[in-house]
Amino acid sequence: MIIQLFKKSPLSFKIGFFISIAYVIAALLSFIWTPYDVMAINLEKRFIAPGIGHIFGTDHFGRDILSMIMVGARNAIAVSLVAVGIGMIIGVPLGLWSAATRSTGGRVIDEILMRGNDLVFAFPSLLMAIMITAVFGPGAMNAIIAIGIFNIPVFARMSRGGALGLWEKEYIMAARVAGKGKAKISYEHILPNIMNLLIVQATIQFSIAIIAEASLSYVGLGTQPPNPSLGRMLFEAQTMIFFAPWLALVPGLAIVMLVLGLNLMGDGLRDILDPKLRRKEPDGVEAKQNVSS
What we know:
The protein is 68% helix and 2% strand. The protein is an all-alpha fold. A two-stranded antiparallel sheet has the order 1-2.
């Protein structure tokens, strides 16, 4: 069934899926193997141009760029995955609680929760990371906390918006008449029906988190040396871009391709999972629906 669904999926999803899975494989492979040791410094091999032996060249310390990209992608994916997970674990219950209280007459609680979300959302992840770093110091963990806090209001808004429309449905009213509480209705009836929206949003937020992690590492607030980071590779390459352009081009393209793959996969998932974008053909094959009307 999964294979058939993949065959019917739009081209954007297939392209995004293969790009994303290539990065995941490279990141997982870096745990057990890289072409060269990313911690080894060899000044005799510094600034080697891309070619045989070093596909993407070497940096100013003689480190292999491909090996650093593999480990840097691993760090970026790990930070972003945990950060988005924090946003979902905290934001989705808050959104469901807000929708449930508003739909059952608790507008005050809903307003408090949403205004609190607006307050958090007003601080960009970079600014929040600066504040957190001022207290706890720079590091990957602080980057995770900053990006995770930034994701909380996003998922809270998304889950609340999707849940509000469902609370007026007849089967929800029937569940309330049957004596089910707000928490049980939200878990058993609301959450499964908005899961498609949350999956698509999680994919989009994952790509945003990749950019945020690279930005934080670029300004020295993310992954710290000697651990490789795509953002810090860009920072270190900015003064050498004219005589060693591959030092900036390779990590820059790595970030662009990873974000592009995740965005394409997110768009494809939206087309697959959103019933409003599909219709049934006479032979039973699902196809995209023209929603221009």
